Amino acid sequence: MSLQPTNIQQIGNELAIQWNDNTESYLPLEVLRRACPCAACGGEPDVLGNIIRPTVTYREESFQLNRFDLVGGYALQFRWADGHSTGIYSFDYLRKLTAGPRY
Ligand SMILES: [Zn+2]
What's the gap in Å between 21 CA and the centre of ligand 1? Predict the structure, then answer.
């Protein structure tokens, strides 16, 4: 059984995800945005596999969510109020964020 969300909703400034293994994730939007895995935010590995994290400037709108879409049944794509929407968050990645440090 692969990991799938059964319910996703935004509650205040957190995203609440219910999973099909009966667990729940509460992810603050700011944590989500700072963990954006797209090339512009997360950096891409160079030829040696090192990841150079670019400097990203955030605004207030950067942590506000306009909407989210399911992508290919394996990920979520978030559309942020500052227009950024290139990050594809796989379900596994979202689960890892749940266990990660909170800001
Ligand atoms: Zn990004």
Answer: 28
How far apart are alpha carbons 25 and 32 in whole angstroms? Answer: 12
> In the chain, which ranges are continuous DSSP H helix?
29-34, 39-42, 91-99
Mapped onto helix, strand or coil, the DSSP state of residue 94 is: helix
Query: CATH 3.40.630.30: does it fit domain 5-99?
Result: no
Whole-prediction pTM: 0.83
23 Cβ contact list (under 8 Å, min separation 6): none
Q: Which residues surround ligand 1, an ion (CB under 5 A)?
A: 36, 38, 41, 87
| Rounded CA separation 20/25 (Å) | 12
Sign of the C-alpha dihedral computed for residues 75, 8, 92 and 41 taken in this order? positive
Domain boundaries, the chain: 5-99
pLDDT (tens digit, 9 = 90+) per residue, 30-64?
999 999 999 888 766 677 777 677 788 899 999 99
